[in-house]
Write the structure tokens for this entry.
Amino acid sequence: MSMEEMHRWDQAHVVHPWSYAGPSLMIARAKGTRYWDADGREYLDALGGIQNCSAGHSRPELIEAARAQMEKLEYVPMHWNFTNEPAVELARTIATLAPGELNQTYFVSSGSEATESAVKLVRRYHYLRGDTKRATILCLKQGYHGATILATAATGFDNLQQGFGPLPGGIKFLTPPHAYRTELFGNEDPVEFCIRQLEQVIAEEGADTIAALMAEPVLTVGGVIVPPAEYWPAVSEICRRHGILVVADEVVTGFGRTGAWFASPAIGMAPDAIVFGKGVSSGHFPLSGVVMSDEIAQTIKAAPDGLMHGFTYCGHPVGCAVASRNIEILQDTGLLENSRDVGAYLLAVLKEKLGNSPIVGDVRGCGLLLAVELVSDKETRAPLQFKRQALADRIRNEHAVVVRSIGANIIIAPPLILSRAEADTIAHALEQVISTTKPDGTQS
Ligand SMILES: Cc1ncc(COP(=O)(O)O)c(C=O)c1O
């Protein structure tokens, strides 16, 4: 069958997620930091799949782990009292990596299922303790938690919520700690503003109606918003004081992306539960989960009617076997250190190359999770207007480097095996495209 025919069939029969009009790009093969399209053109994948292929594409060790597990036990439910060795082993490992008393994991398949599950689990915890009014979830504007209906309701982007009918209630949004966007805070210090707002919302809503605050320690889709250092310690303390649980959504930031196993403890956030996904299996199998405190898990487990919540693929043995091997790779080959080292290098190079551009407002990052925020005017910080993905498409088409653009941000999240030379390639591609983009978003 010809590629032309394939593309026609793709248009005729496939509905793409997060799609936009335009020709499709058929990726035929991947290895390490590279993709090859059906015509044999090589691309540097500076987005690591979709921020998930941390150990690199098509790792032989992960393929072998999946093959061996498929042969032995391809599937068994986790329902009732069924269990399987890979899930138990992985849960034990995660308990050693997660902070404090976070020792018990509920496994699912996607990040959205994991955030949904976290919400149900924390509400269930309060309910079982007789705190039956605690249901509201505090979330941040510009936070992203997935595409299922509750995750959409918890996602702080109006354009992602519109046109899907009524969304579940019980979510209350707070201003994100986006220090670059000073207009969000009037003349106030961003952290002081956010703290004041949080305390005000708690007072208005009533602490005894709030189940949890769920947020990304570093907001990826929002544009890799790295909160000021004082933000998370202060927010965590206020939540703890009011009996509000803290849920860190580490679907992107977990498992080494920011240079630590989990970003939350590194950045001063004190979570009672961490939602993870993506990098836990480096994209080789869909796997995600919620690692929670013993206190939450034991309360839920002790309920006389057990836990009425689950999915067919909870604790999939193949996904868990792949994830355990992936964690070994991240550990044994120093990929957390590489994320810190090459991430800091790339951030410095991007700042040096792009800092003087009239359309670059800010360059920021944390490990190998970086963003370039584009503006039409550096003074007013008005976001650069351009057709969705247009700049990412140019970077890919003209320089064979894959990134994504969200709003006015270009996001970079390559596999954690990235070398400094590859970091230079990414920076060069961005520089070329940005230097030929005018403040009105058109190409010069
Ligand atoms: C922070 C965060 N949470 C949750 C999700 C949802 O994950 P998934 O797309 O696997 O459902 C994402 C996806 O990008 C994410 O970035």
Q: What stands out?
A: Residues 110-112, 115, 144-146, 216, 220-221, 249, 251-252, 277 surround pyridoxal-5'-phosphate (CB under 6 Å).
